[in-house]
Amino acid sequence: MLEKIRDGSQGVIAKGILVLVILSFAFAGVSSYLGSTTDVPAAEVNGDIITKAELEQAYQSERSRMEQQLGEMFAALSADEKYLQSIKQSVLERLVADKLIDQAAKAMGLRVSDEQIIAAVKTEPAFQTDGKFDNDRYQAILRQLGYQPQAFRDMMRVDMTRRQLTAALVGTEFVLAGEAKQLAELQGQTRDVRYLVVDSAPFLATAVVTDEQVKNYYDANQGQFMSPEMVSLEYVELNAADFAKNNPVSDEEAQAYYEEHKAQYVSNEKRLAAHILVMLGSDEAAAKAKAEDLAKQLDSGADFADLAKANSDDTLSAEQGGKLDWFEPGVMDPAFDAALFALNKGQHSAVVKTDFGFHIIKLLDVQPGVTVPFADVKAKIVAQLQDKKAVDQFYSLQSKLADTSYEVPDTLSETAKAVGVDIKTTPLFSRDNVPAALNKPDLVKAAFSETVMLKGLNSEVIELEPNHVVVVRVKEHHDAGTLALAEVKANITERLKQDQANEAARAKAQELMAQVKDGATDLGLVAKAKLGRGAQDVDAAIVGKAFQMPTPSTSPVVDTVGLANGYAVVALDKVNAAEGVSDELVNALKQRLNAQYSEADYRGLIDSLKANAKVLYPVEE
């Protein structure tokens, strides 16, 4: 728990810790803090109850975590109720596992003393100020979370007691250096191979499939021909973008807007600058003294252009007598900019320091800001006013859309009439092939919801994009089921022909394999030296086969392997030892193996405890 608090304290303390403590509390299984209930529990572990309130709290915490981790991807996944149900079931199994660990720890007599809890609280950085425990901070955080100190310490006791058991178990795992090195050497192996692909395509022409074969395959593989649940929708759509073209803007309106907002259409003043630059170099004081001397010469009447040519470190502008370019406000370094726009035409500044060095700036000319003619911005103003009118119209109609679709929930006719648009329809679609224009998580979830799909009512207003909403209702609904033979006959026929062609390719590959074993060298096998496990230029099936084959002795090891469309003959000529196995790689593998072994130990513990426990999942009658 304290590790979670420590992580959460790095941001907005109250919000971060709240999520993490709730997560820990939800998984702690301290049902006494949630109060007793007469509802059917979510699970019962050796007589200890996991309430539905605990499950719901833990489930919501897990959802929040996944939303943060997956972002928009989770929004798409959560449109499927089955996916959410699988998450909830996984959370319940974790609650059961925690309950089993709590019971095992109690049976072993594991305890955490008050002194240990107090020490953990005092050493927790989240409760410290300047490295020391701050009781006021501790109390303030608990108040923000809505916990009393004693309840919080009790939760910590459960968490720390549980970790006594799991940490002791996980801490016993270790990985030998030789074990990790052996794995590194195995992973780094390369192999010298030859291979020949036998494509199945030439054999397709002679493949023959009868209706009886198709029927037999269909009957034996019904599970492959399940059709997903499908719906078609009626919907009423409001999109502000569609209204813009129907909201003409008169010349008088555009002109009035221009006059009212004329300040927006004034171009910035521009100034033509020149400068003399003395770069900082290694001796800043000397550079400043040089610049100040040049400024004095200018004050005494020296020619700016001549001084720039002779003294400026900006060689490009020096050739032009220091002349730079036209600048608008805010373009140059702030100090340079401020000095330039404080000058009158023909004046030069005092010495100005920037990151580039010391400048003396002269204002050569000024282009006053000018008002852009109405004709030049008319099209832009018209578009802005059209968009504004469209958005205003959209919000007015959206209110009618929401009200009418709710008040008359069993049809969209009244809704369409109220907002003055036509009812649109979709073809049948499943969750996996939603029409692109409507493929948004909220809409998919609504389309397959009980309200829309089963009760036949209008959905709530669903936002597809900003200023773009729909209300949907089901037009047609097909339950998931088995596709008729006629619908899949062509696909089965093609599949069986491919199987026949693959079988013919396999027979040919077997024939070629025998020839390779007999020493044939004119078969056109492709040679690949030092083939690695991650090779991208060789079919993955061939790579996998090469690394499954035993080390050859006096003659190559030869075998065949199935490909997506055909077979291949693979001859393994040599196994090459790994090159350059570094200590860093070995250490990384040790850490990975240790984590895998620890996870396996934990899973083994839970499986063992569960096998000897009475775990019930009551169902409400």
Give an overview of the whole structure.
It is a single-pass type II membrane protein. This protein is of the alpha+beta class. The strands form six sheets. Strands 16-5-18-17 form a four-stranded antiparallel β-sheet. A hairpin with a 2-residue loop joins strand 17 and strand 18. Helix 18 packs antiparallel against helix 19 (413-419). The longest helix is centred in the middle third of the chain and has 34 residues, at 374-407. The protein starts with a helix and ends in a 5-residue tail after the last strand.
Helix content: 40-55%
Q: Taking all residues together, what is the mean pLDDT?
A: 87
Largest sheet: 4 strands, antiparallel
Described by the principal axes of the CA atoms, the overall outline is extended
Looking across the biggest beta sheet, what order are the strands in? 16-5-18-17
Number of helices: 24
Category from helices, strands and their pairing: alpha+beta
The rounded distance between the terminal residues' Cα atoms is 37 Å
Number of strands: 19
Provide the β-strand percentage band. Answer: 15-25%
Which consecutive residue ranges, at least 5 long each, have pLDDT under 50?
1-37
Radius of gyration: 38 Å
Domain PpiC: 268-365
Pfam families: Rotamase_3, SurA_N_3
InterPro entries: PPIase_dom_sf, PPIase_PpiC, PpiD_chaperone, Trigger_fact/SurA_dom_sf
Main location: membrane
Q: Helices and strands in order, then pairings?
A:
Elements: H1 2-8, H2 13-28, E1 43-45, E2 48-50, H3 52-70, H4 72-77, H5 81-107, H6 114-122, E3 128-129, E4 132-133, H7 135-145, H8 149-170, H9 177-187, E5 190-199, H10 201-204, H11 211-220, E6 226-227, E7 230-239, H12 240-244, H13 251-260, E8 270-279, H14 284-299, H15 304-311, H16 315-318, E9 323-327, H17 334-340, E10 348-354, E11 357-367, H18 374-407, H19 413-419, E12 424-425, H20 441-447, H21 450-454, E13 462-465, E14 468-478, E15 481-482, H22 485-517, E16 526-531, H23 540-546, E17 557-563, E18 566-576, H24 583-611, E19 615-616
Antiparallel strand pairs: 1-2, 1-19, 3-4, 5-16, 5-18, 6-15, 7-12, 7-14, 8-9, 8-11, 10-11, 13-14, 17-18
Helix pairs in contact: 1-2, 2-3, 3-5, 5-8, 9-24, 11-22, 13-18, 18-19
